[in-house]
Amino acid sequence: MELAINVYQATAGFPKEEIYGLSLQARRSAVSIPSNIAEGAARRSSKEFVHYLYIALGSAAELENTTLPG
Q1: What does the pLDDT read at residue 11?
Q2: What angle do CA 55, 21, 60 make, to 5 degrees?
Q3: CB 11 within 8 A of CB 28
Q4: In the predicted model, is pLDDT for residue 45 greater than 60?
Q5: At what angle do helices 46-66 and 22-41 cross, to 10 degrees?
Q6: For 20, what's the count of Cα atoms within 13 Å in the CB-facing half-sphere?
Q7: pLDDT bracket for residue 69 (50, 70, 90)
Q8: What is residue 48's predicted lDDT score, i.e. its pLDDT?
Q9: Per DSSP, which regions of the chain are E strands?
Q10: Residue 68 pLDDT class (50, 70, 90 cuts)
Q11: Burial call 28-46: b when 16+ CB within 10 Å, e when fewer
Q12: What single DSSP character describes residue 27?
């Protein structure tokens, strides 16, 4: 959750034309990470939990891609 809060704070300074582009994508992927971990933890099996961890990992890669400099 701390990561999501930090992303929201960081993207608050993005240019206004990025509100519905890069900023929104970064925020969605940042929120998706802890959400998928929580959903996986609530599942009944380790296999399902691991599945949601992989989804969270994909969201982390997406966030990394949307915040790369340059």
Answers
A1: 87
A2: 25
A3: no
A4: yes
A5: 170
A6: 0
A7: low
A8: 96
A9: none
A10: low
A11: ebbbbbebbbeebeeeeee
A12: H
Q: Which two tokens stand for residue 17?
A: 């034309």
**Long-range contacts from 13-21, C-beta under 8 angstroms, 24+ separation:** none
- Rounded mean pLDDT, 54-68: 89
Residue with the two structure tokens 């993207």: 11
Q: What angle is formed at CA 47 by the lines to CA 52 and CA 7, rounded to 5 degrees? A: 15
59 alpha carbon, distance to own chain's centre: 5
**Does the CA dihedral 4-10-13-18 come out positive or negative?**
negative
- Of 35, 28, 31, nearest to 52 by C-alpha is 35
Question: In 3-state terms, what secondary structure has residue 43?
Answer: coil
To which residue do tokens 């949307």 refer? 66
C-alpha torsion sign, points 14, 17, 22, 26:
positive
